[in-house]
Model the fold of this input.
Amino acid sequence: MESLFALPFADLMFRAQEVHRANFNPNAIQRSTLLSIKTGGCSEDCGYCSQSARRDKETGLERGKLLELEEVKIAAKAAKDKGASRFCMGAAWRGPKDGDLDKVIEMVRVVKNLGMETCLTLGLLGAGQAEKLAAAGLDYYNHNLDTSAEFYDQVITTHSQQARVDTLTQVRAAGMKICCGGIVGMGESRRVRAALIAQLAGMNPPPESVPINHLVAIPGTPLENAPPLDPFEFVRTIAVARIAMPKSWIRLSAGRQEMSDELQALCFLAGANSIFYGDKLLTTDNPEAGRDEALFARLGLTAV
Done:
């Protein structure tokens, strides 16, 4: 993977475009909307996240209860009306309790009845929980590796990366699709970024959906002063992911609010063909739908 990163930029982009065009319509973008169904109060210490209960005072984030079913239905319908085809729901838990999981399953059914693909990110799953989600018809379960194994404990200490892998194994065994990617710009080296892509591509099969997040340096979190990542290095990461995982949806995820239209266009050229669509990503801002619509019109991109 490092050899791909080291290619001249034009050569890397050309290779990524070749792979992308062989597997996808290069002018079509999938739009997903992400809703926080339970915000804050998480017991984990992920260094990039404002939702850890350990840093409520530093971030000023207000904890919320699990949303009511009708609130989720309204949000999902609004997302569909704006053009989203997948609806993702996230809860700030180490992992769901069975009682909460039953409530979330009702949310999945409501969203599916609207004709949308469904995705959940609830943390680490316990015994039998993946099977319950699969039986409810959940399409995707998201659980990111976040970063490479060698860098992981510099970002998170309250659980291992292997615990994440174990949850992904349960999800796959239950017959669901996997949404799994990572975050770049946390102070990691290019070698770490290459190792992350290699880990993802080495899954058998690779994740069907791969979100590539650019760190949003949230004040009050341990990574609030992380050094900025060269924008071209971010585009390279997208391109290498596209080459390594030809048939996966590569999602341009967190951090788009801070990206110029030109940088996003380069990411699409590098093989990104999915975005999060809507004004919020859990607790961080996302470009308004109108800005995305205008950009897509300028680039001749259509919705999947």
User: Anything to note?
Assistant: The chain has a mean pLDDT of 91. The two ends are 29 Å apart (CA to CA). DSSP finds eleven helices and twelve strands in the chain. The first strand starts at residue 28 and ends at 38.
